[in-house]
Amino acid sequence: MSDITNDTPDTAEASGVVTRRKLVVLDMAGTTVADGGLVERAFEQAAERLGVEPGTPDHAAKLQYVLDTMGESKISVFRHLFGTEELARRANSAFEEAYGELVDGGLVTPLPGARAAIEKLRADGRTVALTTGFARVTQDAILDALGWQDLADLTLCPADAGGRGRPFPDMVLTAFLRTGAVDDVTDIVVAGDTAYDMLSGRRAGAGIVAGVLTGAHDRAALTGHGATHVLASVAELPSLLVESA
Asked: Which member of 79, 143, 180, 185 has the lowest number of beta carbons within 10 Å of its beta carbon?
């Protein structure tokens, strides 16, 4: 689902709950979705197609870079690793194809409490956007595998925001512009599991930038890159927002 819908009932207002921070931008893999190491497996398949032999120092160094830059747009990662735009695009296509095949194998699952948290956020009158560093075809494959096509108000990938993914603020600001859910960027909430999510949220001016400990980076990395809060999981986010209203 890529277009905003405006038919979510504002049950929070009806119940008297103040919902100042009405736009919530959530990362997918590691934050709301568990992929069981599929990024590493898809990268290994893609790298091998480009002649990077498994077990070599070059392969190990490239894989480590992929792990270190979790959360960043994958095409940006491949530009760094392979040096030319042609090779980067070949690597990215191979990666997306491999990841899509692995997703179809049923290895992607929701993180505990993630679906309920998104449903609660929307029931509280908030607009929810799901973002990813993957291409649209891969994002849609994940949403289809989970049955999440209509779970959020908006889904965004880097191409939807002019091509720049995290750590740039573009996807967060695109959600701000497309939804019109808030008038001030300080009323945006960003949540993710990586340093790049934190940087993206801070650069967008989000008032709450919450790190979650269910994915790639630890508390020190999240706070070191601008997290205003660190949560055990995204399941804690609805309560945090009610408390901070």
From this structure: 180
